[in-house]
């Protein structure tokens, strides 16, 4: 039963992928958009978990072992767990659910902070970062923009990690080969600056660690997306204007970039989709629609159960 919350080819593609899994999902917020999404997903056979307030005693015991509650009394922890975001993360940390989709009425900082505190960061990743899935109005083009929501000034190692995590998730969700552009205001040495040096270092580190993944850097965005400009600026371009993953050098450029493309270019922006946590937690824009919540839930379900082919 798809009704009208699955209303395009990409959503349908994700729906068909996600419904194969028995992912345990929490949508902890209470508003019309979230409730519409919950009704649709439940009727479609997805396992939507309600907040378990009967387990408070166990969650209090578990949280009392965390550093941030070191000087808290039991009553303070109980009060903390009155918040649906905190309670849902406690449930996921206790393996009562696989993923959380929230943010329709809570700021990103709260979602990210609570997830890091209670669910924790993957040892293999070291950092939490994010991407937006950017989809053209005719649903024919799909890009990933990273990082647009989490790390303000990533260093070269963090940029390398952001690029790899983004490539994995992009491939997982689209089945397309990642083609990564490490963006800068310089292309192939056209400018000298410490910010350019960081991007070049990131590209070189990525190429050394993941030689099988197509990438280029440092590169300006016009050369990353237009083959004619790419040939003029770098005749040896490896992606030749066909990038589908844009790695921004910092949060300013990433956040501004995705919003410009969304508002002026008419693209859908799904995210921020976070990676680097021990379990899947995805943030939502406070301006999201019920359709956005459904699509993000489908992505989380796929992400919880699958591995990329890269």
What does this structure look like?
- This protein has 310 residues and is an alpha/beta fold.
- It folds into 2 domains: 1-120 and 277-309, Rossmann fold, CATH 3.40.50; 127-275, Rossmann fold.
- It contains 12 helices and 10 strands.
- It has helices spanning 9-18, 32-43, 56-63, 74-80, 84-93, 108-118, 156-174, 194-209, 221-225, 227-233, 251-265, 290-305; strands at residues 24-26, 47-49, 99-102, 129-135, 142-146, 179-183, 214-219, 245-247, 268-275, 280-283.
- Strand 1 (24-26), helix 2 and strand 2 (47-49) form a beta-alpha-beta unit.
- The longest helix has 19 residues, at 156-174.
- The model has no long low-confidence stretch (mean pLDDT 91).
Radius of gyration: 20 Å
Topology, number of strands = 10
What percentage of amino acids are in beta strands? 15-25%
* Domain unit count: 2
Structural class: alpha/beta
Shape: globular
The name of the CATH architecture of the largest domain is: 3-Layer(aba) Sandwich
Stated plainly, the CATH topology of the largest domain is called: Rossmann fold
């Amino acid at each position: 039963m798809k009704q009208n919350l699955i209303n395009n080819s990409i959503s349908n593609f994700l729906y068909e992928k996600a419904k194969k899994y028995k992912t345990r999902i929490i949508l902890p917020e209470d508003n019309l958009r979230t409730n519409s999404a919950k009704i649709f997903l439940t009727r479609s056979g997805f396992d939507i978990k309600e907040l378990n307030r009967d387990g408070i005693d166990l969650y209090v015991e578990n949280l009392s072992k965390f550093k941030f509650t070191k000087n808290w009394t039991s009553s303070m922890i109980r009060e903390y767990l009155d918040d649906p975001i905190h309670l849902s993360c406690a449930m996921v940390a206790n393996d009562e659910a696989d993923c959380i989709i929230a943010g329709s009425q809570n700021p990103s900082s709260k979602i990210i902070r609570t997830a890091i505190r209670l669910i924790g960061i993957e040892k293999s990743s070291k950092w939490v970062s994010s991407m937006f899935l950017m989809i053209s109005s005719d649903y024919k083009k799909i890009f990933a923009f990273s990082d647009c929501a989490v790390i303000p000034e990533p260093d070269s190692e963090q940029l390398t990690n952001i690029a790899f995590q983004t490539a994995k998730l992009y491939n997982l969700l689209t089945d397309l080969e990642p083609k990564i552009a490490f963006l800068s205001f310089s292309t192939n040495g056209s400018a000298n600056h410490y910010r350019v040096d960081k991007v070049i270092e990131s590209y070189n580190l990525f190429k050394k660690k993941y030689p099988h993944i197509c990438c280029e850097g440092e590169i300006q965005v016009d050369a990353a997306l237009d083959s004619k400009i790419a040939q003029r600026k770098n005749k040896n371009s490896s992606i030749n204007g066909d990038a589908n993953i844009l790695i921004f050098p910092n949060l300013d450029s990433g956040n501004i970039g995705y919003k410009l493309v969304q508002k002026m270019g008419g693209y859908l922006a799904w995210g921020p989709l976070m990676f680097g946590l021990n379990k899947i937690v995805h943030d939502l824009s406070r301006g999201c629609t019920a359709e956005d919540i459904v699509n993000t839930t489908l992505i989380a379900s796929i992400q919880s159960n699958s591995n990329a082919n890269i």
